[in-house]
Design goal:
This protein is mainly alpha-helical. The protein has 3 domains: 7-37; 40-80; 83-124, no CATH class. Helix content is 65%, strand content 6%. The protein contains 6 helices and 2 strands. The protein has helices spanning 2-5, 8-37, 40-51, 62-80, 101-114, 119-124, and strands spanning 83-86, 89-92. A two-stranded antiparallel sheet has the order 1-2. β1 (83-86) and β2 form a beta hairpin. It is flat, with a radius of gyration of 24 Å. The mean pLDDT is 76.
C-alpha cells in the first residue's frame, strides 16, 4: 500500500483531479452565469426543456430560443475556424496565398510595421523587429 501512495501514478492522478476539477468548476460557473444573464422568458423556456415539459412551451418563446441557439452555434464556429488576423482583418487560412505558412510569413511583417507601439514596448523600450 505504501508503494502505491508514494507512486508517480498517484501523484499524476491527484494532479488531474485538481486540474479537471478546476475546469469543471469553471464550466459550471460559466453555465450558471450565462443562464442568469438570460431574459426571464428564456430562463423559463430552458427550465421547462430541462424538466421535460416540452408541451408547456409557447410558440412565442420558440423564436427567442432558436435565436439564442443559433447565435451560440455561430459564435462557436467563428471561434474554432482556423484563421489569421492581418492588418486588423480576419483572413481564413483557406484563402491565404498558396495555403501555406509562407503566406503568413509574407503578410505578417506589414502588420507589425503598420501597428503602433504597444504600452509594453514603450515601457520596456522594445523594438520587436521594427526598423
Amino acid at each position: 500500500m505504501t508503494a502505491f501512495l508514494s507512486s508517480a501514478a498517484l501523484g499524476w492522478f491527484l494532479r488531474r483531479i485538481l486540474d479537471w476539477g478546476g475546469w469543471l468548476g469553471a464550466a459550471l460557473l460559466a453555465v450558471i452565469n450565462f443562464y442568469n444573464a438570460l431574459p426571464p422568458e428564456l430562463q423559463v423556456v430552458i427550465t421547462k426543456i430541462v424538466a421535460g415539459n416540452w408541451q408547456e412551451i409557447t410558440l412565442g418563446a420558440v423564436p427567442g430560443l432558436v435565436a439564442l441557439l443559433w447565435s451560440q452555434i455561430q459564435s462557436f464556429r467563428a471561434t474554432v475556424r482556423p484563421q489569421v488576423v492581418i492588418d486588423g482583418q480576419q483572413l481564413p487560412i483557406n484563402k491565404m496565398p498558396h495555403r501555406e505558412a509562407t503566406g503568413v510569413e509574407e503578410l505578417s511583417p506589414t502588420a507589425l510595421e503598420k501597428r503602433g507601439e504597444t504600452l509594453v514596448e514603450k515601457l520596456l523600450k522594445l523594438k520587436l523587429g521594427r526598423p
